[in-house]
Amino acid sequence: MGTAALCTASALPALSGKELDASHKLVHHVFFWLKRPDSEGDLKMLLEGIRGLARIPSVKGLHVGVPASTEKR
């Protein structure tokens, strides 16, 4: 649980003057690794900050989460 993932989707501006449909999107993935992965406080602050990005007008969608725990390999 030492990382948090962010995915935002934002519509691209029309380059040719034509309307873009929902299939024309820019999707950007950002992954963060915490310096203190066991700190619940650090994770909480990071997730709150990431969720604040939803207030940006060009951000049309925001998906935030942490990786599922897996068995040690």
Your description of this structure?
With 73 residues, this protein is of the alpha+beta class. It has a domain of 49 residues. 16% of the residues lie in helices and 32% in strands. It contains one helix and three strands; from the N terminus they run E-E-H-E. It has a three-stranded antiparallel beta sheet, covered by helices on one side. The two termini are 15 Å apart. The model has no long low-confidence stretch (mean pLDDT 75).
- The average pLDDT value, as a whole number, equals 75
The count of DSSP E runs of length 2 or more, i.e. the number of strands, is 3
Structural class: alpha+beta
The side-by-side strand order for the widest beta sheet comes to 2-1-3
Please state the CA-atom Rg, rounded to the nearest Å.
16 Å
- Let me know the largest β-sheet: 3 strands, antiparallel
Shape: flat
Question: What amount of the residues lies in strands?
Answer: 25-35%
- Helix/strand order: EEHE
Number of helices: 1
Q: Percentage of helical residues?
A: 10-25%
Contiguous low-pLDDT stretches (5 residues minimum) are none
| Intertermini distance | 15 Å
